[in-house]
Specification:
Largest sheet: 8 strands, mixed
Strand content: 25-35%
Shape: globular
CATH class: Alpha Beta
Radius of gyration: 17 Å
Structural class: alpha+beta
Order of helices and strands: HHEHEEEEHEHEEEHEEEE
């Protein structure tokens, strides 16, 4: 497993595609590889700032040919400021997708069956995630993508807003001012709070901490689109917008 973690870490660091994992890797082993990859990033000075859910929308599941929800980790080095630039040469297969993001106001113990992660959230914001699979030809199975930190690349957040009704807010992704995807927060497991509750269960099983101040990307509301030299904007009704610029 260590050899596979090193290979994935080097692929991310060098922005070079790598072969898929050997057949037979279990989900538990895939999460162990992911943790080993992130430990290398932490050893290099990066800091854990949150988690990300993947495959929480039907569109995403169909696009990627999977049916299971997965969890990855966010570090401070993955954060891009609203309106900031993303250097595309540092990525392998960049794609963008619109999301909403939650902020935890207090620690949550995912092993406590009485803990309520939803009540621990103190703010919500629009977000754009730049996903980036490190596998050749952007092809992977479920274990592959889990080990690769759920294709985690970069993310940018809009302004924090109070928690309100998030059940069916319109979501728009535009590229250079042209509409690319439309969706709804309802596409996130029917309601984004369901994504949070799913996270709590997986965090308990796979050892993900849920700490005060951490951010949680709830999953994409639409399918992802390729990210080239362009300005990408995500708008969520009632929550505002966030923008990133891809540069060569």
């Amino acid at each position: 497993m260590t050899t596979l973690a090193v290979r994935l870490h080097d692929a991310q660091r060098n922005a070079e595609a790598t072969p898929q994992l050997p057949a037979g890797i279990t989900i538990g082993e895939a999460y162990a590889i992911q943790h080993a990859v992130l430990e290398r990033r932490f050893a290099a000075g990066e800091r854990l700032v949150g988690t990300k859910l993947g495959f929480t929308s039907r569109a995403k599941m169909v696009q990627m040919g999977v049916s299971d929800i997965i969890v990855g980790q966010l570090t401070d080095a993955m954060r891009v400021e609203d309106g900031g630039e993303v250097r595309l040469s540092t990525l392998v297969h960049p794609r963008v997708e619109p999301e909403i993001v939650f902020r935890l106001g207090r620690d949550v113990d995912p092993t406590d069956p009485l803990a309520d992660i939803v009540s621990a959230v103190d703010a919500v914001a629009p977000a754009v995630e730049v996903i980036d699979s490190r596998y050749r030809d952007f092809k992977f199975n479920l274990a592959d993508v889990i080990a690769d930190n759920t294709s985690g690349g970069l993310f940018a957040l809009g302004g924090w807003q109070p928690i309100g009704d998030l059940g069916n807010r319109a979501v728009r992704l535009s590229v250079d001012g042209r509409d690319a995807q439309f969706g709804s927060t309802a596409a996130i497991l029917g309601h984004p709070f369901r994504a949070l509750r799913q996270l709590a269960g997986i965090a308990a099983r796979e050892g993900f901490p849920l700490r005060a101040g951490h951010v949680i990307l709830a999953g994409a509301a639409t399918a992802a689109v390729p990210f080239g030299p362009s300005v990408v904007r995500v708008e969520v009704a009632g929550l505002g917008s966030v923008t990133v610029r891809g540069v060569v």
